[in-house]
Design a protein that fits this description.
9 strands, 192 residues, four-stranded mixed β-sheet, three-stranded antiparallel β-sheet, Nucleoside Triphosphate Pyrophosphohydrolase
Length: 192
């Protein structure tokens, strides 16, 4: 597994991009720069994870670019990011899919949510997120992934993915197992 060799420790320079901070009960505490929110010990904030499923019931995975600040080079769900502002979550998630994967997705449904905390030992970057999982149909069009975000993509049957994550957890992002658990509740992932 190739990890980002230049990510010795997280750079704490502000980026101008914000995340919404949350209290332990899920109430909004305002916004903070994304890098500051991910600096140890990490601040709880809102996130989303998208799972896209094709017509054969396979799930789209992406391998994170090696230039990513955290969890570089690991396999993960179709797309992830942080919602900010008042625009609907599904709209923000669809926009992020277009930016990362180069495809226009249709309707996205909320499949569940969970809170987790994980530290990337290579960078010191800390994910402490309340993550909402959205599931949608993978459009029948070629992917055009942004190479700064996505190193590789592949389609995999959900049952095979569950076994693979259990057998080789260090190859996958630490949130993926919980994303899959939520996605399995979706009718799209159950083949309906």
């Amino acid at each position: 597994m190739t990890r980002n060799p230049s990510s010795a420790r997280l750079q704490t320079r502000p980026t101008g991009r914000s995340v919404e901070l949350l209290d332990p009960q899920g109430g909004s505490l305002g916004e903070l720069d994304v890098v500051q929110a991910h600096t140890a010990p990490g601040r709880l904030h809102r996130a989303f994870s998208v799972v896209l499923v094709d017509d054969d019931g396979q799930t789209l995975l992406q391998r994170r670019a090696v230039s990513k600040r955290a969890f570089a080079g690991l396999w993960s769900n179709s797309c992830c990011s942080h919602p900010v502002g008042s625009r609907p979550l599904a709209e923000q998630a669809a926009r992020r899919c277009a930016e990362e994967l180069g495809v226009q997705v249709g309707a996205l449904e909320v499949a569940g949510a969970f809170t987790y905390r994980a530290e990337d030992q290579a960078s010191g970057f800390v994910e402490h997120e309340h993550d909402t999982v959205l599931v949608g149909r993978l459009p029948d069009e070629p992917l055009r992934p942004d190479p700064h975000e996505v190193a590789q993509t592949r389609l995999v049957a959900l049952d095979d993915l569950v076994r693979d994550v259990a057998a080789r957890p260090s190859s996958f992002t630490p949130w993926l197992a919980q994303v899959i658990e939520c996605a399995q509740m979706s009718e799209l992932c159950q083949g309906r």
